[in-house]
Design a protein that fits this description.
With 121 residues, the chain is an all-beta fold. The protein has one domain (1-121): Sandwich (Jelly Rolls), CATH 2.60.120.200. It contains no helices and 6 strands. The protein has a 3-stranded antiparallel sheet, with no helix packed on it. The protein has a 3-stranded antiparallel sheet with strand order 4-5-6, with no helix packed on it. A hairpin with a 4-residue loop joins strand 4 and strand 5 (56-60).
């Protein structure tokens, strides 16, 4: 999972949150990271996750940033969302009733694939 928050984006660097949460999967532990990267997250970048049966690799712009040595054992889910939380301190910053609508959430492309011969077990 990657999280990009508007109030944590900067021209020279931005905060990126990523990792796994167990939610209701007792086979994994919470392993989530909040790091600053030298990118402007308001611009297009390639965010990738390789989810294997044994580990998860996270990439930004084709560079591996972290390997997590555990893997959820349930089907993968892809969610692209935009949220506006109407209270101070929300993930996306201060709520402002006068902000114009509609909000924009632009995705250049999404690609999903699996190895032709699988990962082998």
């Amino acid at each position: 999972m990657f999280e990009l928050l508007g109030n944590e984006a900067g021209r020279d660097s931005s905060i990126v949150r990523y990792g796994v949460h167990p939610w209701s999967d007792p086979t994994i532990r919470d392993e989530f990271f909040i790091e600053q990267f030298p990118i402007d997250t308001t611009q297009f970048h390639i965010y990738a996750v390789e989810w294997t049966p044994t580990h998860i690799d996270f990439y930004i712009d084709n560079v591996k940033i972290k390997a997590i040595h555990q893997s959820p054992q349930h089907p993968m889910q892809l969610m692209l969302s935009i949220f506006e939380l109407p209270f101070a301190g929300a993930w996306n910053g201060q709520y402002n009733l006068n902000d114009p609508y509609p909000k924009k959430f632009t995705i250049d492309y999404v690609r999903g694939y699996q190895p032709i011969n699988g990962y082998g077990t």
